[in-house]
Amino acid sequence: MFKCVVVNGNNYIPLLVKRIVYFSLLLALLVYFHQRGAVVWRDRRKRINIINMSTTQNNTSEIDGVCDMLNNMNTANNTDSIPTCANCGKEGSDVNNTCNKCMSVKYCNAACKKKHRHKHKKECERRVSELHDEKLFKQPPQKEDCPICFLRLPNLPPGTVYMACCGKKICRGCIYAVQERETAVGLCPYCRTLPSSSEGEMIKRYEKRMSLNDANAFNNMGSYYKDGDFGLPQNYTKALKYWHRAGELGYAEAYYRIACAYAMGRGVDVDIKKSTHYLKLCAMGGSDMSRFTLGYFEARAGNMDRALKHWKIAVEGGDNTSLKYIKMMHSNGDATKEVYAEALRSYQAYLDEIRSDQRDEAAAANDDYKYYDSSF
Questions:
Q1: pTM higher than 0.90
Q2: What is the CB-side half-sphere exposure of residue 305 using CA atoms within 13 A?
Q3: Is 46's pLDDT higher than 70?
Q4: Strand runs (DSSP E) across 115-230, as ranges?
């Protein structure tokens, strides 16, 4: 390892000392850098531990915060879910006697309900009126589509035909197209059935549809009994019975005929309150004619805001008369320009949904097939 060149005894000792000093310095440097690296590593580990501890504390605090929030929500929900008597303040699951009109307050028994009635009366009537208006002015369901062309059925009655053979309502455009193409006159476009050859056969078809709970069949049979058509005796009692059944099955227009019966005293005593009730049922079911009539009554009573609400809904359903009355309100200053413009856009959107070349061709060929009114 050591290369010793001995020239003489005097030169050997200084050379050895130099080499010892050299190796000592080298060892000292190694020890220094080792200690320095250890200090740096220790400081780095301390910083990592501090960061980990802070992160853990933050996560713990966040988790604790979320848990506290959930506990508070559960506590609030538990507090809200505990029924409380509106009269005596008693709490518990046995407080289950609800107000029959507004359904918004509860009592522990009938005695508390009766005792609190005079205090709750005004609030109850206000809440009942609000709930009623929410249902009355809710957007009604849209009418069904034609099962042949899959376009929305028009609002005007001449634009659709009910087929007693299959129970489908078909637009005049599809019926006209079949009549032009087929040699058999009156062939059903949907089920390809020939029309009934006699009044008795047609009544049998309606009775078959009624046995299947067809609402349209019940409604039409009620109209036939009202007028005494197709060999049936005139019977207002049966007509009302069939109209009620049609309304129960979802045919809202039947309620309009019941409302007219109560208004005119046909088969029943005149009862304007019941007539208005059935008009509202009809309007909520999607009848634009009933909706216009309700708006007309509100306008006569001076309730222009409520009348405007009715007519706006009717216009969206395709009622041209309601659009004309909104135009009249705009001319009289009872409706703004924006409201009238919105009504025009709604009616135009309705026309865009129902119009087709086939239906226009049918309406041009026969005035009885007219399916919309463009005069406004």
A1: no
A2: 1
A3: no
A4: 160-163, 168-171
